[in-house]
Structure formats: structure tokens, C-alpha cells
Design goal:
Helix content is 78%, strand content 0%. It has 9 helices and no strands. It is rod-shaped. The N and C termini lie far apart (83 Å).
Length: 254
């Protein structure tokens, strides 16, 4: 068992089943003697509903997803070449494939309107940003992706949230870097909030479980105390009965 294998199983599950399954996988790794793997499994983040929906498409409809990502690759190349005719055709194809994927996602699970909007946002990011495309293809998203630029990012671009700037426009380039830094901080903040929310839920569950078991132990201890008292009373009666029986036997023999 390795982390990639475990992650593949976990991220195939609905978010509602993720936390319990992760705990079971971590416990299994620890029991097998791999404490390091257990810690890495415990560190896996539970996906949002929108991230899970995109992950499911990556597993169940890889052909359709590959078609969209291929359109995105061609679109980025056409943008770099400033090929207006190709851009128009690719934009049309992008709309068709994105719409088809969005319908598959909505048909395959309980996805709210808000989550569906995040799915569309993630697919858009995968089209215009090569790094986002790779993340989507892996099927291990934990949160939706976004892209804030006006133009597709080149294949060597940064994480989603970057922006392609025209060469020589220093001020715009600096503004882009600031925007990217702000977007990165916002993502880190979102990740921290999601992690805290998940562990807060886990804490509440652990406290509930501990309280239930403590109550059960208290009830059992109370029953045990009563049983010991009854045993002591029974032992006392047995001793008195033995003594009286012995005295009665002695009188009979006299």
C-alpha cells in the first residue's frame, strides 16, 4: 500500500464518506507498521463537492475530459500565435465540450447550483492554464480552481490565478505579480480555513464518541459496584448460614 493507491481510493468517494474512510486507511497503515504513511494519509484533504464532481469526471469520462484539455492546449497555442481564425473555432469547440462535460457532472451526482458554478470555473481554469489542466487530469482536486487573467497562460506558466502580460509593459507585469501574490494568499487562506473546518468537524465527532463511551463506562462501573455490593452481602449470608448450620449439627450430635 502506498499513498497514491490510498489517495486514488479516497478521492473516488463522495465527500461525506471521505473523513471516515481516511481515518480507516490511516489506521490500517499504522497497524501495518508504516507510521510515516499513516501521517501522510491523515494529511489528505477532504474535497469540496465541486472538486469531487470534477474528480469523478476525470475517472469516469476521461475521453471527454481529454478532449476539453486538448482544446485548451490548442487554444493556448493559437493565442500565442495570435491566430484569430483558430481562436474563433477553438472557442466554439471549447463551449461545446465544456457544456457536454457540465451536463455529465450534473447528471452524475447531487451538485448544487453553487457547486456547479465552481465546476464551470474549474473547467475554465483547466482550459486556459496548463498547470490547472494537469491537476484536473490527475483527479485529486480538493477545492475548485480559478484563473483570473484575460488570456490563456502558456504551458510554462504558474499556478491557476496567474495572468499573461504583454512583453515590455513593466507596470502591468508588476501589477500582475501583485495580483498573483494576492490570489496565492487568498488560496492559502481558503486552504487553511478548509483544513480548520475539517479538523473542527473531526474534533466534534471525536468528542461525541468519547462522551458516549465515557457514559457507557460510567454505567458499567455503576453496575459493577452494585454487583460487588450484592456479592459481599451474599458472602456475608453464606458465612452466617454456614455458622448456623455448624451449630445446628453440633447440637444434633450432642
Amino acid at each position: 500500500m502506498d499513498l497514491d493507491e490510498v489517495a486514488g481510493r479516497l478521492y473516488a468517494l463522495p465527500p461525506s464518506e471521505f473523513t471516515a474512510a481516511r481515518a480507516a486507511e490511516a489506521a490500517a497503515a499504522k497497524q501495518a507498521g508504516d507510521a510515516a504513511l499513516a501521517r501522510r494519509i491523515a494529511g489528505l484533504r477532504r474535497p469540496t463537492v465541486s472538486a469531487w464532481a470534477v474528480n469523478r469526471v476525470a475517472r469516469e469520462h476521461p475521453g471527454e475530459l481529454d478532449e476539453l484539455l486538448s482544446v485548451g492546449q490548442e487554444l493556448r497555442a493559437a493565442w500565442q500565435a495570435q491566430d484569430a481564425e483558430a481562436l474563433a473555432e477553438l472557442t466554439r469547440r471549447r463551449g461545446e465540450v465544456t457544456g457536454r462535460l457540465a451536463r455529465l457532472i450534473r447528471q452524475g451526482g447531487d451538485v448544487s447550483a453553487a457547486a456547479a458554478a465552481e465546476v464551470d470555473q474549474t473547467l475554465d481554469a483547466a482550459v486556459v492554464d496548463a498547470d490547472a489542466a494537469e491537476e484536473v487530469r490527475r483527479g485529486r482536486l480538493v477545492k475548485p480552481l480559478s484563473y483570473s487573467g484575460f488570456a490563456p497562460a502558456p504551458a510554462t506558466g504558474g499556478r491557476p490565478g496567474g495572468r499573461k502580460k504583454p512583453t515590455g509593459e513593466d507596470e502591468e507585469a508588476r501589477a500582475g505579480k501583485r495580483a498573483e501574490a494576492e490570489a496565492r494568499k487568498a488560496r492559502e487562506r481558503q486552504e487553511a480555513e478548509a483544513a480548520h473546518r475539517e479538523w473542527r468537524e473531526a474534533l466534534a465527532e471525536a468528542e461525541r464518541e468519547h462522551g458516549e463511551r465515557a457514559d457507557k463506562v460510567a454505567r458499567l462501573e455503576a453496575k459493577l459496584a452494585k454487583a460487588r455490593k450484592r456479592l459481599a452481602e451474599s458472602a456475608q449470608r453464606l458465612e452466617v448460614t454456614r455458622r448456623e448450620e455448624r451449630h445446628a449439627r453440633q447440637r444434633l450430635e450432642e
